[in-house]
Design brief:
Elements: H1 5-14, H2 23-43, E1 47-56, E2 59-66, E3 77-82, E4 91-96, H3 103-113, E5 121-122, H4 134-156, H5 161-174, H6 179-188
Helix pairs in contact: 1-2, 2-4, 4-5, 4-6, 5-6
Length: 198
């Protein structure tokens, strides 16, 4: 199994700053993921889907693409590769319709990533993730940005990072809504700064 230059390039595109909430960036990520899916499908013909899972503040942003239009083929193999040793919740997930499809690739990646990298998981993600469009990805990244801003506001009010995350979760639970909406509600409740007159 060989990691091609194109595959490495796509991984580099996908590892940029995902939290900007930029629709153009979201389109770049989904386009890059689609190209990555094509490259992986060439290497592993039974590959069904390629997904990236970004875990932030207890919520997942999933970017996925199907490599084949075959909804009837069950997922029989998967490979989950942590994207970073610094943020081990972020994963590249490959899924295939043939048993053992990623055995060689997992061995190669373990050798390339080295012993200090979080462990690669085989066959632990056997359900297909929903297909994400650039528009829905932009919305998910915008929610993530709002949550980060909400945490920042609560930090400014003296809470610790952990307490700020818990407070946002409590507000979301109390309002029966998502973290993104609860964060926007918090941001909207702040007094507006007066615009300087010229």
């Amino acid at each position: 199994m060989q990691i091609t230059a194109a595959l490495a390039h796509h991984l580099q595109i996908l590892s940029g700053d995902p939290e900007r909430g930029d629709p153009e960036r979201a389109e770049q990520i989904t386009a890059g993921l689609t190209r990555l899916g094509i490259d992986v499908a060439r290497t592993v013909p039974s590959c069904l889907a390629v997904s990236i899972v970004l875990r932030r503040w207890g919520a997942d942003v999933i970017v996925g693409t199907l490599t084949r239009d075959d909804a009837l083929t069950p997922v029989l193999a998967s490979l989950a590769v942590p994207l970073s040793g610094l943020d081990p919740g972020d994963l590249l997930i490959l899924q295939a319709g043939a048993l053992g499809a990623f055995l060689l690739l997992s061995d190669d990646l373990r050798g390339l990533l080295g012993p200090g990298h979080p462990p690669i998981e085989l066959d632990t993600h056997l359900l297909l993730a929903p297909v994400v469009t650039g528009e829905s990805l932009a919305a998910a990244l915008a929610d993530l940005r709002a949550v980060n801003q909400g945490v920042g506001v609560l930090l400014d009010q003296g809470l610790t990072p952990k307490a700020a995350r818990e407070e946002l979760k409590r507000r979301a639970h109390d309002a029966d809504t998502t973290l993104g909406v609860a964060s926007r509600m918090l941001l909207d409740s702040l007094p507006r700064r007066a615009q300087p007159s010229c």
